[in-house]
């Protein structure tokens, strides 16, 4: 896990084939992880429902856990992973699972023209930058959704984000992630944590 970014894709939620493109790319990113068949796949969905814009991660975590009960999901609406417990959660994941493949998911603030963009890449992300938090980079694969334009006060931008955009982004991202995992079969080295789909 580091700050390097490779094999990046960017789609907009209004694009006709956004979900399919994202799902295909995520499948590719997951499948190229070394020793995948022997490593648990963990979805780390970062955020909090205290601010509308920051609820993207927990919404996605909840949607994934409801539809793929055998997958390992950290960060849901009931049990969010946020700035206050992210480091502890990373330590728990690394202690509990041997060499896990972590897919980190978070909301992001960008330019006005970038609202609705979804990006995925190989490499880690740094949560909390928009609101001035310095947290460790996390993830072997990262997915972000641009929920609002960023100003000088990140909390206000997250607070004033329309729920509609967060819901649209969360539905596309969760469906793309679920689709990416379901494309694995026992013959193609399904991740050990998602064998019983």
Keywords:
197 residues, Rossmann fold, six-stranded mixed sheet, two-stranded antiparallel ribbon, 5 helices, globular
Describe what you observe in this structure.
The structure is a single chain. With 197 residues, this protein is of the alpha/beta class. The protein has a single domain (6-194), classed as HybD-like (Rossmann fold). The protein contains 5 helices and 8 strands, in the order βαβαβαβββββαα. The protein has helices at residues 18-31, 56-67, 86-96, 154-159, 163-182, and strands at 6-12, 41-45, 72-74, 101-110, 117-122, 125-126, 137-138, 141-149. A 6-stranded mixed beta sheet has the order 1-5-8-4-2-3. A two-stranded antiparallel sheet has the order 6-7. The model has no long low-confidence stretch (mean pLDDT 87).
